[in-house]
Amino acid sequence: MKALEEKILREGTVLPGNVLKVGSFLNQQMDSDFIMEIGKEVARLFGNEGVTRVLTVEASGIALAVAAGIALHVPSVFAKKHKSANMPKEVYTASVYSYTHKETYEIAVAKEYLGSEDRVLIVDDFLANGNAVQGLMRIIEEAGATLVGCAIAIEKGFQGAGDKLRAEGIRVESLAIIDSMTDESVSFRVQG
Ligand code: 5GP
Asked: H or E segment at 156?
C-alpha cells in the first residue's frame, strides 16, 4: 500500500532496538481516515474468504481490527493481556513474549466470542518476531476455529517471521514490508 509507505517515510521515526515509531497515525494518535483506508484494503484482500471474526491483541491492534471488521461486516475481537497465568475456565489463553516491552504476558479471549465454526482473520499493526501472531494462532487452534490468514499493517521483513509463516502455508498480507531501516532511511520490499 503505497500510501502507507509514504506515511512511514514522512512521519515514522526509527528508535533504538529496531523499533519504528508511528505514533502520529497508527498508534497513540490514529489518523481516522487512513485507518479506514487500511480496513478497506484488508477487506479487498480477504473479502472472498468467508471471514466471520477479526482477531487482534490489545491495545495497538484494535483500531485496525475494528476498521477491518467494519469493512468486512464482521465483529472484531481483541485478546486481553494479563501478567498472571491464572485464568478462569471461560477463556482461551496463550503466552506471548513482547518484542517492545521485553516481557512475557498471557493473552486471553472469552470462549463466547470465538468458536469452532469461526473463520478468523488475524489483524495487527506490526509483525516483528511473530510472537503476537503465534499466540493468536494458538488461541484459534484452541477454539477449533479456522485461520484464514494474517493482515498486517507493517511487517519488519528483516526479522523473518512473515516469511516463516508464509513458508508454513499461512497467508500473510502485509501492507508495507520493511526490508531494512536505519536512523536515516527505511527501505521497503517491492510487492507484486
Ligand atoms: P512480534 O510479536 O511480531 O515480535 O511483535 C508484534 C507486536 O509488537 C505488535 O503487536 C506491535 O504492537 C509490537 N511491535 C513490534 N515491533 C514494533 C515496532 O517496530 N514499532 C511498534 N510501534 N510496535 C512494534
From this structure: strand 146-156
Q: Is 187 in the pocket of ligand 1 (CB under 6 A)?
A: no
d(CA 147, CA 106): 20
CA of residue 18 to ligand 1 center, whole Å: 10
Whole-prediction pTM value?
Answer: 0.97
Q: Is the CB of 106 under 6 A from ligand 1?
A: no
Express each pLDDT in 91-127 by its tens digit. Answer: 999 999 987 788 899 999 999 999 999 999 999 999 9
CA of 150 to the centre of ligand 1 (A): 14
| Number of domains present in the structure of the chain | 1
- Domain of residue 44: give its range: 2-188
Cα(120) to centroid of ligand 1, in Å? Answer: 21
Q: What is the rounded CA–CA span in Å between residue 175 and residue 5? A: 8
Residue 19 CB less than 6 A away from ligand 1: yes
CATH, residue 126: 3.40.50.2020
